[in-house]
Amino acid sequence: MTPAERSRPLVVRDALLVTQDARRAIVRGDLRVEGGRFTHVGASAPTDGADVVDGRRFAAVPGFVNAHTHVAMSVLRGLADDLELDGFLGRLFAVDAKRTERDVEAGARAGIAEMLLGGTTSFLDLYYFEDAVARAAESLGIRAFLGWAVLDADKTTQAGDPLDNARGFLDRWARHELVTPLVAPQGVYVCGRETWLRARELAEQAGTLCHFHLSETRKEVHDHEERTGRRPAVWLEEIGFFTGRSVAAHAVWLTGEEISILGRRAVGIAHCPSSNLKLASGGVAPLVELREAGAPLGLGTDSVASNNSVSMLREMHVAGLLQKHQRWDATVFPAQELLDLATIGGAQLLGRSAEVGSIEVGKRADFSLFRLDHPSLAPARPEAIVSHLAYSASEEAIDSVYVEGRPVVRARALVRGNASEIRAAGEAAAEALWPASPR
Ligand SMILES: [Zn+2]
Could you write out the three-class secondary structure of 63-83? Predict the structure, then answer.
């Protein structure tokens, strides 16, 4: 962002503030943003020199943190539905091999536009050609944590050694305002010991984290156990991988021993309930036990090939229903905890809770304004706003979205990109990638 874009302060007056602060306070009040950060949260913000937004019709909500996705796959929605994981991966890998940096950028732009319109202001991604995703994030104004996928050199479709590619990516995007590059070993089924350890070493050198898939299916766990004699999380602990900051996606099939390892090592868990349900992973991530063990929890949509949405509103709803149903306990994961997963929890899992995830003075001003007159938020009572966000809110209720205090969505339209161009480029990428007759 240029200094000029940042120079004018913003005040939102008299909105319902869903702060997600330590007390989870919900208050009527004002927000003032200067230099990309909240400088005032509460009654009577000074309006000098500021653009003032009348907030009376709105609830201000922290931007959502999507803790696991593959955003550039947005052009593959509907390509691999209703298949077992093996068939699903087979169909997607065949397309992966054809992808170009250009169509990854088109897919990333389309996916990021969709996320912004859904109130997501930060996301954690795992893919390759991440420079293209980084450019898309920068131009549309979303906060992006981008993991370059690494796997054993004999198992990749990437040109060159994935670890060298990851190193180049980390160098090119170091110290960027919105983009945080990181290293993403894909999973135990394509990464051997050396790849895991070199990925960790690279992440440590760059002062960043590792993001990976872990124990999504029973088959993957059993295959690994057959090869190594150890379950995946035990094996990763034994080889010395869990020495730095980590975020694991899925974490469905875990033993008590693995849960204690993940808790002790404070491995962040990106729970992806829709993807797990659609791909029939069979089990349910043991969120209660993971949290008790000390693992930070967040919520991810996974890609639209397996969800088929990047909606964090929908993901909160599904996460709540799944945990309650599976545990025979309607009190588990109440609405407040679901909203926590989608906001401050995601920030904690990324090690960024001092910066994002709540509306508090000093934090970066990433937030959305939800229309309180939308039917999905009725009755618009402050005591029910958290319930509405977790269980019923529609994305159509999101009027505006801000990242670093700068509008990225206004009146349900993208501010920084041309929606029809983005859509056309996405359709062209899909046209090039999809098989002539997919079924
Ligand atoms: Zn994934």
Answer: CEEEEEECHHHHHHCCCCCCC
d(CA 351, CA 6): 25
Report the first-to-last Cα separation within the chain, whole angstroms.
45
**Total number of domains in the chain:** 2
Distance 69 CA to ligand 1 centre (A): 6
How far away, in angstroms, is 57 Cα from ligand 1 center? 37
The alpha carbon of 70 and the centre of ligand 1 are apart by a number of angstroms equal to: 6
CB atoms within 5 A of ion ligand 1 belong to 302
436 within some domain: no
Same-domain status, 68 and 18: no
Q: From the CA of 191, how far away is ligand 1's center (Å)?
A: 15
Q: Are residues 302 and 342 in the same domain?
A: yes
Instruction: Tell me, in angstroms, the distance from the centre of ligand 1 to residue 432's CA.
Output: 23
Residue 79 Cα, ligand 1 centroid: separation in angstroms? 16
Q: What angle do CA 109, 114, 117 make, to 5 degrees?
A: 125
How far apart are the CA of 246 and the centre of ligand 1, in A? Answer: 15
Helix or strand holding residue 436 (H, E):
none
- Domain assignment of residue 435, yes or no: no
Shared domain for 101 and 234, answered yes or no, is yes
Does the reported pTM lie above 0.70? yes
State in Å: Cα 387 to ligand 1 middle.
28
pLDDT 10s digit of each residue in the chain, 439 long? 455 455 799 999 999 999 999 999 999 999 999 999 999 999 999 999 999 999 999 999 999 999 999 999 999 999 999 998 888 988 998 898 889 999 999 999 999 999 999 999 999 999 999 999 999 999 999 999 999 999 998 888 888 899 999 999 999 999 999 999 999 999 999 999 999 999 999 999 999 999 999 999 999 999 999 999 999 999 999 999 999 999 999 999 999 999 999 999 999 999 999 999 999 988 999 999 999 999 999 999 999 999 999 999 999 999 999 999 999 999 999 999 999 999 999 999 999 999 999 999 999 999 999 999 999 999 999 999 999 999 999 999 999 999 999 999 999 999 999 999 999 999 999 999 998 764 5
Would you call 232 exposed, middle or buried from its count of C-beta atoms within 10 A (0-12, 13-18, 19+)? buried
Q: How does DSSP classify residue 277?
A: H
Residues 220 and 236 in one domain: yes
Range of the domain at 21: 3-63+355-414
Expressed in angstroms and rounded, the spacing between residue 302 Cα and the centre of ligand 1 is: 5
Which residues make Cβ contacts (< 8 Å) with residue 409, sequence separation at least 6?
116, 117, 368, 398, 399, 400, 401, 415
In the reported structure, the alpha carbon of residue 305 is separated from the centroid of ligand 1 by a whole-number distance in angstroms of 10
